[in-house]
Amino acid sequence: MKKWFNNASVSDTRMFMIIMALTSLLTLFFSLFLFPDPKVHEALGKVGSNGGAMIAVIGSISGAIGIVIGLFVTVYLQFLLYYIVMSIKKRTMTKEINQLAKRSFYISTAISLIVSQLINIIAMLIEQHQIVDTTFTIVVTVIQILVTIGLLYGFFKYLVKDLQVGYWIITVVFVVQLVIALMPIFSKYSL
Questions:
Q1: What rounded mean pLDDT belongs to the chain?
Q2: CB under 8 Å to 107, separation ≥6 — which residues?
Q3: Contact by Cβ (8 Å): 124, 131
Q4: What is the mean pLDDT of residues 161-186?
Q5: What is the pLDDT of residue 190?
Q6: For a disulfide at 116, which of 23, 60, 144, 158, Cβ 3.0-4.6 Å?
Q7: For residues 63 and 104, which has the higher predicted lDDT (pLDDT)?
Q8: pLDDT band at residue 71 using 50, 70 and 90 as cut-offs
């Protein structure tokens, strides 16, 4: 594992981005066409066959666009955090180190999304319907967070070779993603 972290390349980034896109699109296909949420299925039935198909296609396209935009926003927010931490720590930022950090963010985000999408696909296949459960969503999100911070740790230790900055980034990413994951619980008990 140490050797892989140390030698992660542009081709690894591309490969995981492609796999992430494919698993996300597969999850999207499963949730829109094979195992739609019963409320969505009922609404599509009211629209009619042609209108329902059009809504499903538009949902697929917008979901795919959302996946790509979400990935880039996540990575660039992590990179902004990296830039802030490097400025606070008064570390020299070279183009090479910045590229390694950005590669770390892309690969760790892609792999964590792959893991969560595969869990969702397996759950849909087992249950034969889309799981719209707060507990399940939180468990999958926590697994995704743990994968992300584990990968960021490995990348900052072996590829970027600046674990002190990595600890700052891992801590902030962990806290922010955990708060986002727990928001459904807090919203249940809000006034």
A1: 83
A2: 8, 12, 13, 16, 151, 155
A3: yes
A4: 86
A5: 58
A6: 144
A7: 104
A8: confident
What is the predicted pLDDT for the residue at 170? 92
Is residue 159 a contact partner of residue 6, using CB atoms and an 8 Å limit? yes
Specify the 3-state DSSP secondary structure of 167: helix
3-state helix, strand, coil in the chain (%, to 5): 85, 0, 15
| pLDDT surpassing 70 at residue 58 | yes
Contact 172, 149 (CB under 8 A): no
| DSSP letters spanning 171-182 | HHHHHHHHHHHH
Residue 164 reports pLDDT greater than 60: yes
CA-based radius of gyration for the chain: 19
- What length is written for the chain? 191
Contact in structure between 181 and 145 (CB atoms under 8 Å):
yes
Specify the pLDDT at position 181: 79
CA angle (158 as vertex; 153, 164 as ends), nearest 5: 55
Say if CB 36 and CB 130 are below 8 A apart. Answer: yes
Residue 101 phi/psi, 5° resolution?
A: -65, -45
Nearest to 102 by CA among 110, 92, 112: 110
Amino acid at 15: M
Residue matched to tokens 């666009």:
65
The single residue listed with the structure tokens 């090479």 is 96
Q: Which residue has the tokens 């740790």?
A: 153
